[in-house]
Write a structure and sequence with these properties.
By secondary structure, the chain is an alpha/beta fold. It has helices spanning 2-27, 29-46, 49-76, 96-110, 142-145, 152-168, 186-195, 200-204, 207-216, 222-237, 250-267, 270-280, 329-337, 355-366, 374-381, 386-413, 415-444, and strands at 80-88, 114-116, 131-140, 176-180, 242-245, 292-295. Strands 1, 2, 3 and 4 form a 4-stranded mixed sheet that branches. Strands 5-6 form a two-stranded parallel sheet. Helix 1 runs antiparallel to helix 3 and helix 13 packs antiparallel against helix 16 (386-413). The longest helix has 30 residues, at 415-444. The two termini are 59 Å apart.
């Protein structure tokens, strides 16, 4: 487009110079004759004036059409696919921390489907960057839940309740795949394949394993040690390039990257690998995409109502430490009224001596009906005492959660719809996961399944 524009400009300037020279001839014919003769000679030797005019017209038309062609070129560029995967365990009831720290951000991801490829800034014109389509996979990670003992009937109910809350909070099945982890068998098979090549000391240094093993003692199951490999399997199966995680999960994501690299070093090199891929009719590119972390936005980490230094958690035995998404309004107000605060006057952010103040202000800001800055929040409530602020906070939480609760109950009444959403989501997930698993098998040297129907 720029080249055509420059050509058109040059021709127009050249034509203007001809007109200027002709006008100059009328006033100073004798002095300008050599210049005019030179121009005429140059024109006669290259192109006639009529051809110049025609060329000018064609060039101007081409320049005018350039934006349309550029748009067509951009549209014809191959659409890149970027996949985002995330999930929450169905143990207990989902709480405000799960919602603000994860589910609500998933809704933002699904509603921003198309964007330019910011990773290709080497392109001369940013308008020519290839568009990216984001595909979202949000699962209920029930396999992770059983790393700790679970009541079978409660696990089933919690799984369906979690999926319904995903939908009630704004996850749209038309834009995102919603499924149950155990409904996609490839998760467990790939986890086993990866476990067999993951060094034991990589797992033993995981911080969460150390903390939970210290609390549980010898009764801790093996799954608690190996579940980071299952998490790596979850991510790598879908070739997910972006994984929304909190800071406390970054170590597990780094492990997934390390496992992918080790797999590639062990099984994706040499002519033998290429021959196996050729025989199977698949590409010999690396089996997995190395995932990158999408750290959740500042303030999205919600802390306990009883300890501003501890994360709000479903595993906390004290139910008063959290706001569950399905808590009725009276219970929410009771929990907020009794939550831990301090004896200082006024409210402020980021004072290390007042973690509860920061946490409660973060919650208040996050549940506002419209985006609100910290400055606006402090202008509204910064002068309040705790006795004044707590009712305002409770009302804001109740107002925010009420529509979600109403939609949740409507979805649970139509269980056929919920199960259909999960079945369709699992179908889409299986299609992609099975391809990745097949590629991993071939890379490791397994004999591909034999199609009995093809034998004669």
């Amino acid at each position: 487009m720029e080249t055509l524009a420059r050509r058109a400009t040059m021709i127009l300037l050249f034509a203007a110079s001809l007109r200027s020279s002709t006008a100059f001839v009328g006033k100073n014919a004798h002095s300008s004759r050599p210049l005019l003769a030179g121009i005429s000679k140059s024109c006669n030797s290259q192109v006639s004036s009529s051809r110049i005019a025609r060329f000018m017209s064609e060039t101007a038309s081409a320049a005018a059409a350039a934006p349309v062609k550029a748009a067509e070129s951009s549209a014809s560029k191959p659409l890149k696919i970027r996949r985002i995967l995330s999930g929450v365990q169905p143990t207990g009831s989902l709480h405000l921390g799960n919602y603000l720290g994860a589910i609500r951000q998933w809704v933002d991801f699904q509603n921003n489907v198309y964007e330019k490829d910011s990773m290709e800034e080497t392109a001369a014109d940013s308008e020519e960057l290839a568009p990216i389509k984001t595909e979202n996979f949000f699962c209920v990670v029930d396999l992770h839940a059983i790393t700790m003992p679970q009541d079978p009937s409660e696990l089933a109910e919690s799984t369906l309740a979690s999926a319904a809350l995903y939908l009630a909070a704004g996850i749209d099945p038309k834009k995102s795949r919603v499924f149950v982890q155990s409904h996609v068998p490839a998760h467990t098979e790939l986890a086993w394949l990866l476990s067999c090549m993951t060094p034991l000391n990589w797992l033993e240094r995981m911080i969460q394993f150390k903390e939970k093993a210290r609390k549980g003692g010898e009764s801790v199951g093996t799954g608690l040690l190996t579940y980071p490999v299952l998490m790596a399997s979850d991510i790598l199966l879908y070739q997910a390039s972006q994984v929304p995680v909190g800071e406390d999960q970054r170590q597990h994501l780094e492990l997934a990257r390390d496992i992918a690299r080790r797999f590639h070093d062990l099984y994706n090199k040499g002519n033998a690998f290429k021959k196996r891929c050729k025989a199977a009719g698949i590409s010999s590119r690396p089996t997995f995409v190395e995932p990158n972390a999408m750290i959740v936005e500042t303030g999205a980490r919600v802390m306990s109502l009883t300890d501003g230094n501890s994360k709000m958690s479903k595993s906390d035995p004290n139910d008063k430490s959290r706001i569950n998404l399905l808590d009725p309004p009276d219970l929410i107000r009771s929990k907020v009224k009794r939550c831990k605060t301090d004896a200082l006057q006024g409210l402020e952010w980021d004072n290390p001596e007042r973690p509860e103040a920061t946490n409660l202000l973060n919650i208040y800001q996050a549940v506002q009906p419209v985006p609100t800055t910290r400055e606006q929040v402090l202008e509204r409530v910064g002068h309040m005492s705790w006795g004044e602020f707590k009712p305002a906070l409770a009302d804001a939480i109740v107002d925010h959660l009420s529509p979600i609760q109403e939609k949740y109950h409507a979805i649970r009444k139509d269980e056929a719809y919920l199960r259909q959403v999960l079945a369709e989501g699992a179908g889409s997930a299986n299609e992609i996961a099975s391809q990745t698993l097949a590629a991993a098998r071939i890379a490791m040297g397994f004999v591909p399944p034999i199609d009995s129907g093809s034998s004669s």
